């Protein structure tokens, strides 16, 4: 078997072949994550034999795995033959601040691979295929398959957590008296907001089951005295009087009709002079590579939902009674889309 030559430009057929073989790299990354290779390399360079002894794998197979990944900047092989972490492989560590280990584990889960094998049916029909494949909606399937649900939500929870610092660095929440975080889960973002804005109060709004661990989280963050927790569903009426209503990675899960309903609920509840903050990927109008485009395919397959362009958010806001005033980019692929009631 010949080695793939270096790709010089996109007219080279091997540029496409590299993309086609992406599934191989995904599996290799998942194996490295599951074995914990990046974790054992945290203490310094090791030979493949030493790595294998520590993680319980075959030495030669481990060398071949890491050699393949090193060609993509994940791990590096030194002149003495030992392997070491790179800035990319550091994010495979379980204890990394912005760890992507959970996502690597999700991407090799057989349930996920089965689902993506049905993407063609979704593209052909324009309808979500997961409910047809499973005979139930996504949430019901997660409740019936708790092991897969754990892997799935740990992966996306880790991805969401990696966005908190970029959001806080890009947007000043201290101008708000009360921030209502809608369908916020445990409340990691809200805890960060209240730490950034010591004079701001918060309301965490989600179901009882989603917020069961929230009090401990807020106590640990030192913000529990400025926060209340209220319970409700996705399309229920919202707590009233907030100066900012935050929807992070929520609106992209909805059909247009449900998205408008959720945002109209915020319009009814918001205080005079308040702001709507939808935190989502904004799909660029150009053909540039963007994480939101791949997440959009995921939403299409699972939920029949979508990511949106700024123009589509402008229309959505207007239908719900808001004027979109700006979209604040962050150092992550996510933006804070701001609106005011009209």
Q: Portion of residues in helices? A: 40-55%
How many individual helices? 17
Q: Numbering strands along the chain, what is their spatial order in the largest sheet? A: 5-4-3-6-7-11-10
User: How many β-strand stretches?
Assistant: 11
Gross morphology: globular
Describe the sheet with the most strands.
Answer: 7 strands, mixed
Structural class: alpha/beta
What is the H-and-E element order? HHHHHEEHHHHHHHEHEHEEHEEHEHEE
Low-confidence stretches: none
Strand content: 5-15%
Distance between the termini: 64 Å
Radius of gyration: 22 Å
Describe this structure in words.
The protein is α/β, with parallel strands linked by helices and 342 residues long. It has 17 helices and eleven strands. It has helices spanning 13-20, 22-35, 37-40, 48-55, 59-70, 101-106, 110-116, 119-125, 130-134, 138-144, 146-162, 164-170, 188-196, 214-221, 256-269, 291-302, 310-320, and strands at 76-77, 83-84, 178-182, 201-206, 227-231, 244-248, 275-280, 282-283, 308-309, 322-329, 335-341. The strands form three sheets. Strands 5-4-3-6-7-11-10 form a seven-stranded mixed sheet, with helices on both faces. A two-stranded antiparallel sheet has the order 1-2. It has a two-stranded parallel ribbon with strand order 8-9. β3 (178-182), α13 (188-196) and β4 (201-206) form a beta-alpha-beta unit.
């Amino acid at each position: 078997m010949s080695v793939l030559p270096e790709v010089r430009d996109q007219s080279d057929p091997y540029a496409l072949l590299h993309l086609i073989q992406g599934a191989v790299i995904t599996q290799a990354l998942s194996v490295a994550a599951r074995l914990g290779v990046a974790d054992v390399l945290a203490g310094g360079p090791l030979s493949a034999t030493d790595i294998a002894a520590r993680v319980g794998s075959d030495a030669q197979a481990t060398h071949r795995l890491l050699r393949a990944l090193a060609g993509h900047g994940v791990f590096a092989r030194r002149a003495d033959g030992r392997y070491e972490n790179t800035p990319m492989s550091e994010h495979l560590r379980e204890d990394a601040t912005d760890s992507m280990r959970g996502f690597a584990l999700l991407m090799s889960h057989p349930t996920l691979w089965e689902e993506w094998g049905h993407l063609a049916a979704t593209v052909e029909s324009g309808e979500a295929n997961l409910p047809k494949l499973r005979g139930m909606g996504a949430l019901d399937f997660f409740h019936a398959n708790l092991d897969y649900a754990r892997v799935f939500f740990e992966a996306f929870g880790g991805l969401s957590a990696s966005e908190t610092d970029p959001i806080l660095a890009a947007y000043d929440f201290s101008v708000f008296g009360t921030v209502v975080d809608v369908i916020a889960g445990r409340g990691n973002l809200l805890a960060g907001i209240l730490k950034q804005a010591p004079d701001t109060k918060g309301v965490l709004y989600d179901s009882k089951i989603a917020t069961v661990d929230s009090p401990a989280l807020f106590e640990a963050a030192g913000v529990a005295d400025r926060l209340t927790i209220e319970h409700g569903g996705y399309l229920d009426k919202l707590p009233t009087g907030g100066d900012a209503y935050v929807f992070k990675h929520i609106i992209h899960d909805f059909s247009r009709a449900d998205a408008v309903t959720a945002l109209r609920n915020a319009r009814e509840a918001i205080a005079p002079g308040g702001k709507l903050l939808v935190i989502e990927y904004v799909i660029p109008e150009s053909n540039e590579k963007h994480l939101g485009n791949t997440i959009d395919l995921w939403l299409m397959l699972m939920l029949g939902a979508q990511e949106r362009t700024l123009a589509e958010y402008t229309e959505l806001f207007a239908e719900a009674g808001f004027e979109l005033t700006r979209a604040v980019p962050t150092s992550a692929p996510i933006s804070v889309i701001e609106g005011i009631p009209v």
